[in-house]
Amino acid sequence: MNQNQTIYLDNAATTKVDNRVLEAMLPYFTEIYGNASSNHTFGELAKKAIEMAREQTAAIINAKASEITFTSGATEAINLALKGYVEANIEKGNHIITVKTEHKAVLATCEYLEERGIEVSYLNVNQEGLISLQELQEAIRPDTILIAIMYVNNETGVIQPIEDIGKIAHQNNIVFFCDATQAIGKIKVDVANDNIDMLCFSGHKFNGPKGIGALYKKKEIQLTPLLHGGGQENNLRGGTYNTPLIVGLGKACEIAQKELKINASVTEEISIYLSQKVKQIPNSVIIGSEKLKAYNIVDVLIPGLNSEVFIAMTSNLSLSNGSACTSQIIESSHVLKAMKLDDQECKQTIRISIDKTITKNQIDELVNTLKVETRST
Predict the structure, then answer these.
(1) Which own/partner contact pairs does 33-42 have at CB distance under 8 Å and 24+ positions apart?
(2) Are 366 and 317 in contact (CB under 8 A)?
(3) Which of 32, 37, 104, 227 is 20 to 30 A from 278, comparing alpha carbons?
């Protein structure tokens, strides 16, 4: 298969590294390769680059550099935030609230905590994928210490009412954690305006490198670290700094912040065109709210389509039928089932996730291929 002829439509799973990001990283592999914890010139140069990256990473969410902890990605950040907060604050309460459509990293961490005696309430979503703020308020108990709700759903692109959720959390003196992995670089995220206390994301979702991410947390919030070692990252994450990837994350954040408006505008135009085209396929349905949604993700149900077979057999299209973190597991999407789709409907859905480089001609090729496939079944 010639990858240059393949239309890549799985950007929610991972994105291509921006050439400017790669260029920024390369010197820290081959020239400025010192350990950032060392006191010599090589180490000091590496440390300076890391702190610049911390400033760039904080800026994209309107945070302070001192509130950023670098991690290996959002999954580690989620584990650090949830496990770390519960362990450090167990005297405050024993109850967490989350949502049935969260990423598996959140759900699996909550299941782990339940095994250790923590009580977790899982909120429902409606057929558009949105939670009920009333149900959230009713789920709050005197011993609730944490609310964990994602910004943008990784399968449907649905945006939850984050600012309102944060207000409810703060009115009840509860810490609000938000998985913003699919939001950063796509929509404006402002932790102050959105009333967010902790937030995570990964670089590879917005043209940065894989294997690097960040956890934002307000300074006053206490966490118990997952990794103990030399005291790096304000004693929250021991281990030698991965300078090249940290620099890459910072550069990706800088670019994404500067180019957010133009990229969002281009993506919105292509997304609207895509939605119009897929609706021409008989009986097709776009999953989730079309008003409260990030434009880069379109999840569509196409009756008669076997999405697993289609994705496996169509060599010129790179698509997904769910989260890349769980797509190797042959089971129906927990997100779609929470939205009241049955097993058969789940198997007839595909997730199309675009970026600014996708053209209308490529969308036409995708839709025409889908039309041929559904006519043949």
Answers:
(1) 33/243, 35/240, 35/241, 36/240, 36/241, 36/243, 37/230, 37/232, 37/240, 37/241
(2) yes
(3) 104
Candidates 192, 203, 176; CA nearest to 72 is 203
Partnered with residue 350 across adjacent β-strands are: 300
| Straight-line distance from the first to the last Cα atom of the chain, in angstroms, rounded to the nearest whole number | 25
Q: Domains in the chain and their CATH numbers?
A: 3-16+260-376 (3.90.1150.10), 19-258 (3.40.640.10)
**Token digits of residue 97:** 């609230």
Q: pLDDT 10s per residue in the chain (377 long)?
A: 455 589 999 999 999 999 999 999 999 999 999 988 888 988 899 999 999 999 999 999 999 999 999 999 999 999 999 999 999 999 999 999 999 999 999 999 999 999 999 999 999 999 999 999 999 999 999 999 999 999 999 999 999 999 999 999 999 999 999 999 999 999 999 999 999 999 999 999 999 999 999 999 999 999 999 998 988 888 899 999 999 999 999 999 999 999 999 999 999 999 999 999 999 999 999 999 989 999 999 999 999 999 999 999 998 999 998 655 554 555 679 999 999 999 999 999 999 999 999 999 999 999 999 998 887 65
Quote the pTM value. 0.95
How far apart are alpha carbons 69 and 49 in whole angstroms? 15
CB neighbour list of residue 105: distance below 8 Å, 6 or more residues apart: 74, 75, 78, 79, 179, 325
Which two tokens mark 243? 């300078």
> What backbone torsions phi and psi does residue 163 show, to the nearest 5 degrees?
-60, -45
Distance (Å) of CA 279 to CA 307, 338, 350, 364: 17, 23, 13, 12
Q: Greatest CA separation found in the chain?
A: 67
- Decide if 346 is catalytic: no
Q: Tell me which of 200, 253, 325, 346 is the catalytic residue.
A: 325
Full DSSP string of 318-375: E-BSS-TTTTTS-S--HHHHHTT--HHHHTTEEEEE--TT--HHHHHHHHHHHHHHHH
Is the four-CA dihedral 294, 194, 200, 346 of positive or negative sign?
negative
CA distance 260 to 248: 17
